[in-house]
Amino acid sequence: MNLMPAFRKHKNRLCISLILCLAILVTPFVSAAEMRPTEKIRVKFSETVEKSIVRTATALDKTVRKLAEALDKTDNLAVKVHSSFYDSRIRRYFVSFSGTANFQGKLPWQLNSDSYFITTDSEVSIDLHVSDIKQSRSGTNFSFDCSAVVSLDRLAYELLKKVPHLAASGAMSPAFDLLTEFLTKLNIGILSKAISETFRSFSAVAFTRLVNDMIKASGQNHGLANIFREAMKDGSILTFLALQIVRCAAISLVSVAGASLGATVGSIIAPGVGSVIGAYMGSQILTVAAKIVVYQLTAKMPMKRNIRRMIVAHQMLVKNPADDVARRAFSDAQNKVEKSITSELKNEKFSLFEVLLKETDKMAASERQAMIPLLKNMQTILLNKVIGEGDWYYARKYHLLRQNVERWGLQSQIVFTVEPPANR
To answer: What's the pLDDT tens digit per position in 109-126?
Structure first.
């Protein structure tokens, strides 16, 4: 299967193309299944498996930081990691980073905004804010803030299903060990060089020229030549990145073997184990790209999406209160949720308020801590409506909020000292 998808024609696909290059910082492998809701029962693993997950998380963190450092040393990308940690309670790895980029290539699409919010949900969930997009003689310049969450147990489950010898054994530890080995062997130098070069030179003409060069370099390796010919049909920036990885490796393509572009790339950037993980990675990136949603910041984002942003940002701030990326994300998401609900309340509508309560009810106790500032503001807004207008319907919603707060055990943090008027 080809490593990267051919994107549908859409006015925002230039932005998607630019951002997917950045996403490689946190998506060395991704999968197709949806994240399980937080209310699902956590599967219990043996102590051996739990230790394997920790080793994978440690290797992932080292890879992310090394790649960020390598990219920061290039002349067209600046990347800074603000927070990164593994939460063993939910088996998820968190990272936030920011930076700037200069895209010097040529793309056939025009942007119609200077800011976008790009988001996707899967085993690797990404929330990425792209801003200050400006065209200049040197290319397209932009800034970015990103937070990502990697669900390590779900990654291993999907890998277990994809790799025959792992599926036959049914054991989780070998799957995590395989991921760890891949990350440990990953050639950061090749990867960072290829990303930088992609930002510098991608264009339709450059893509065609690169594919032809790759076909010539493959010589009598007809299987590899056919993979490159198939890549020609795609033309996306990520397929160009994959080809750049092959080119930057500076090896003889005659001896390179791979059943797909993903397997070929994997075997180059992580010899040995890479061909197995690479094939898996290539097949799953298709799904992640398909799930990407792009919002202009002037448009309304779905409230559930902003609630998720609040949870992720709060978890990062608990670990690192100095994380400016997480703080900005939390504040922006909370303001958007509050504005949407307040707008409805003014018109005596309560559907979004009820969605907020329902979504909060689904959360784990630790996640509800992220909602306390918002719930306090809702308490104040409803109480003002009750006292100022004496409206019994608002009083009912105030009482509903109080009931939920007490059921969640948050009454010491959200104190109700005023009784609303009795319902008439």
So the answer is: 677 778 888 888 878 888
